[in-house]
Amino acid sequence: MHPLVLVLLLGVLLVSGCTRGPRAVLDPVSRDPGQDHWAIASYYSHQAAMSRQQAEELTNRAVVYERLFGQESEWVTGTRLLAQFYEEAAREEERLASRHLSLVGEGQVPSPPTRSQGY
User: How far apart are the first and last CA of the chain?
Assistant: First the structure.
């Protein structure tokens, strides 16, 4: 075997051996007290913020479309409907975040979200 291939293979094995073990899988629909409801609530709060940002961007885009194509344009109507969808999604995500915060037990300490949790 070529020495360079051997060095690369050894490097891959070392890197894969140094990664963290399996992480806990969060179940966002679970009411199980064993779940990290702080992390789930943080996830939903983050999703709500992203949905609100998307709604705001779409609302701004609808204003531009209105200037270009007129108030009754399908572009304007469709964009406003999509912005409304994202606003409703944000409200639902905030509701779910609140629900998970209410499920937090007395002894559960908040855990800050990490990149490994996918936020």
Answer: 42
User: Exposed, middle or buried, 101 (CB in 10 Å: 0-12/13-18/19+)?
Assistant: middle
pLDDT, one tens digit per residue, over 63-85 is 999 999 999 999 999 999 999 99
0.85 surpassed by pTM: no
CA dihedral 102, 105, 106, 107 (to 10 degrees): -140
**Helices and strands of the chain, counted as H and E runs:** 3, 0
Whole-angstrom Cα distance, residue 44 to residue 119?
A: 10
